[in-house]
């Protein structure tokens, strides 16, 4: 059974006439007849019966018809979706990004992208998460592109720098270090320290910086 046989079956069922169906399909009547016979042979039942010059679906053909039409409709939708995704001027991009980029950076990028000629009809689906969550979504093909922190233990992923952000130390009002213009990592050792969660790409960076400075905050 192949796609052409199913298409022939559908058109013949709708026209109820070999000549009309053949003309609509741009094939010869013998070719159409042979395709239907092969389909019936594979199915093991007669799908059509002849009455005078016209043909009609048998009870088996009537049972088979809705399944074929539904399958062809879904296949057509699938082809249309694939064509839309592969068109350079139209499609949908699944974009993932870390939470901190959702306030200004990503909205500005999307606005600039849509303002570029030829990109107006491209749509986006957005996913937010931590670096590890986003990398997992990329590997599972749930996202097409992600904006996250660079990590060293992902050899399958290519990282390209697009944005640089300053990493700063935040302390509460009245803290002993609050009036300092800068502090060394060693100087934060006596104080309770809140780090990024482990699934964040920033966590690994902070750990590396503290290790280099031989700093061990509480």
Automatic annotation (TrEMBL):
Superkingdom of origin organism: Bacteria
Upper taxonomic lineage: Bacteria, Bacillati, Bacillota, Negativicutes, Veillonellales
User: Domain HTH lysR-type: where?
Assistant: 1-58
Q: What is this protein called?
A: Transcriptional regulator, LysR family
Q: Which PANTHER family did the record assign? A: HCA OPERON TRANSCRIPTIONAL ACTIVATOR HCAR, TRANSCRIPTIONAL DUAL REGULATOR HCAR-RELATED
InterPro entries referenced in this protein's UniProt entry, alphabetically: LysR_HTH_N (IPR000847), LysR_subst-bd (IPR005119), WH-like_DNA-bd_sf (IPR036388), WH_DNA-bd_sf (IPR036390)
Family listed: Belongs to the LysR transcriptional regulatory family.
Q: Which Pfam families match?
A: HTH_1 (PF00126), LysR_substrate (PF03466)
* Cross-referenced SUPFAM superfamilies: Periplasmic binding protein-like II, Winged helix' DNA-binding domain
One GO cellular component assignment for this chain's record is: protein-DNA complex
**Which Gene Ontology MF annotations are present?**
DNA binding; DNA-binding transcription factor activity
Tell me if Zinc is a UniProt keyword of this record. no
Which residues, if any, are the signal sequence?
Answer: none
Q: Which UniProt keywords apply?
A: DNA-binding, Transcription, Transcription regulation
């Amino acid at each position: 059974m192949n796609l052409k046989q199913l298409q022939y079956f559908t058109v013949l069922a709708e026209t109820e006439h070999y000549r009309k169906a053949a003309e609509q399909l741009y094939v010869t009547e013998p070719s159409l007849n042979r395709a239907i016979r092969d389909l019936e042979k594979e199915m093991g039942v007669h799908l059509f019966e002849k009455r005078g010059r016209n043909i009609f679906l048998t009870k088996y053909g009537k049972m088979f018809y809705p399944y074929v039409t539904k399958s062809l409709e879904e296949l057509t939708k699938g082809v249309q979706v694939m064509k839309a995704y592969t068109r350079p001027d139209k499609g949908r991009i699944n974009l993932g990004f870390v939470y901190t980029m959702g306030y200004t950076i990503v909205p500005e990028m999307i606005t600039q992208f849509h303002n570029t000629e030829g990109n107006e009809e491209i749509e986006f689906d957005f996913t937010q998460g931590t670096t590890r969550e986003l990398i997992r979504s990329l590997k599972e093909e749930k996202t097409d592109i992600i904006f996250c922190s660079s990590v060293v233990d992902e050899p399958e992923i290519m990282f390209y720098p697009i944005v640089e952000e300053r990493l700063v130390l935040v302390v509460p009002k009245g803290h002993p270090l609050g009036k300092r213009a800068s502090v060394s990592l060693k100087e934060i050792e006596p104080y309770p320290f809140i780090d990024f969660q482990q699934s964040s790409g920033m966590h690994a960076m902070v750990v590396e910086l503290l290790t280099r400075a031989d700093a061990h905050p509480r």
